[in-house]
Amino acid sequence: MAEIYWQKEIETASPEQIRSWQSERLVKTVQRVWDNVPMYRERMKEAGVEPGDIKSVDDITKLPFTTKQDLRDTYPYGMFACPMEDVVRLHASSGTTGKQIVVGYTRNDLDIWDDICARQLCAVGATTSDKVHVSYGYGLFTGGLGLHGGAQKLGAVTIPVSSGNTARQITILKDFGSTVLCCTPSYAMYIAETLAADGTSPDEIPLKAGIFGAEPWTNEMRRQIEKGLGIKAYDVYGLTEIMGPGVAYECSEQRGMHVNEDHFIIEIVDPDTFEPVPDGTQGEIVFTCITKEAFPIIRYRTKDIGVVTREKCSCGRTFARMSKPMGRTDDMLIIRGVNVFPSQIETVLLKMGYTPNYLIEVDRVNNLDTVVVNVEMNSDNFSDTVAHISASEHALEDEIKSLLGVAVDVKLVSPGSIQRSQGKAVRVIDHRKLHG
Ligand code: ADP
Ligand code: ZN
């Protein structure tokens, strides 16, 4: 029987022990950001709090929150809390508009990241004899190199395939004999369908487990992936600002993801008042990094909505579990793994001479996200010739693709045809039904 823990004494520590680690590490981190990050020192002064006021995790609510806007305002390196010579890696969030955020890691930070991804792999039953096929994108996106580091640290056979070229993915799955697949859930579905179209039965590939995250997916989708690939499918949660994949990991129970509480403090707050809510109550997920050296972030408001439970898990792990994110407090869409805000699309439309009368329709066709942007023509750019309209549509598509990094279909529609709203405009219709 394989060892199911990577760091058993930590993953099964008593709640008192975990709190004591958290208190000690929070105190250190607060001192670190006070000494090294001008924005935090200012914010803390504004809030009337000094490092000496933070003595345990109970004092965390005295600290100010951090938002994505703060990270943009300090772009690129304003939040780094160590000298650049100690940084060994940079990653960036998937937004490609120049408003992306840049994060850094010291060697020690990477070592911890590898550990938490190795915890995830062990939790799904991976051992040194497994072949871990990583089809998350490699590059500035944290997915690929995150799971890669974990697989290598575990001592599994790491196969750094990266994303794309599905026919080649399948050849590798078959010929190299991958046993654990890591990618987005939508890509896993696509691989499953391609296998079926190929006439290959899941029994013909040795795959046994998958680690899927970076975007919302439902339990219904989990069942389809499990059937289509003949595996157990596990959820993994993470975000670039905090670390990347592995912030929270699902165990064999498949009932929520254990938060790596020795490195991150999770809080759930009311999205309107920002007051903490009790366990079991839905709210915005907030994380504080307590061991990061290069990019320690305090009370980061993720905008993800979720629930935390401290009920005992039969896997033996004592870390709290978070639910799958149930939605977001903002309007951020995740399109094929890329974070997109409707306002970014609107900016392009206005720049190209259109009015802000548009409707974005998102769907999932053959398990791939599709986006149609319906845009009204106006008197300045109205046309009723097909060739002209189609050229204008392509120009908009190219501009959106180059600024946002996502391919969309633009459909120009006649003036006045997009429904006007009496209240808040409805800019997005998401047909994907991803939360549930
Ligand atoms: P990544 O590069 O890991 O996708 P990003 O910073 O680009 O990280 O995006 C992080 C966001 O992705 C999260 O805030 C959350 O909304 C979403 N996300 C990540 N993992 C999951 C998951 N397992 N289920 C649902 N949403 C997820
Ligand atoms: Zn568990």
Helix content: 25-40%
Q: Find the structural class using helix and strand composition.
A: alpha/beta
Low-confidence stretches: none
User: Globular, elongated, flat, extended or rod-shaped: what is the shape?
Assistant: globular
User: Roughly what is the average pLDDT, rounded to an integer?
Assistant: 93
Question: Would you kindly provide a written description of the structure presented here, covering whatever features stand out?
Answer:
The chain has 436 residues and is α/β, with parallel strands linked by helices. It has helices spanning 8-11, 15-36, 38-46, 68-73, 107-123, 142-154, 166-175, 185-197, 219-229, 342-351, 386-404, and strands spanning 87-92, 102-106, 131-134, 157-159, 180-183, 209-213, 232-239, 244-250, 257-259, 264-269, 283-289, 300-306, 308-309, 321-322, 333-335, 338-340, 358-365, 368-376, 409-413, 428-430. A 9-stranded mixed β-sheet has the order 4-3-5-6-7-8-9-14-13. Strands 19-18-17-20 form a 4-stranded mixed β-sheet. Helix 5 packs across helix 6. The longest helix has 22 residues, at 15-36. It is globular. The site of zinc ion has 6 residues, from loops.
What are the defining features of this structure?
single chain; alpha/beta; 4-stranded mixed sheet; 11 helices; 9-stranded mixed sheet; binds adenosine-5'-diphosphate; 436 residues
Task: Give me a quick take on this structure.
The chain is of the alpha/beta class and 436 residues long. The protein has helices at 8-11, 15-36, 38-46, 68-73, 107-123, 142-154, 166-175, 185-197, 219-229, 342-351, 386-404; strands at residues 87-92, 102-106, 131-134, 157-159, 180-183, 209-213, 232-239, 244-250, 257-259, 264-269, 283-289, 300-306, 308-309, 321-322, 333-335, 338-340, 358-365, 368-376, 409-413, 428-430. It contains eleven helices and 20 strands.
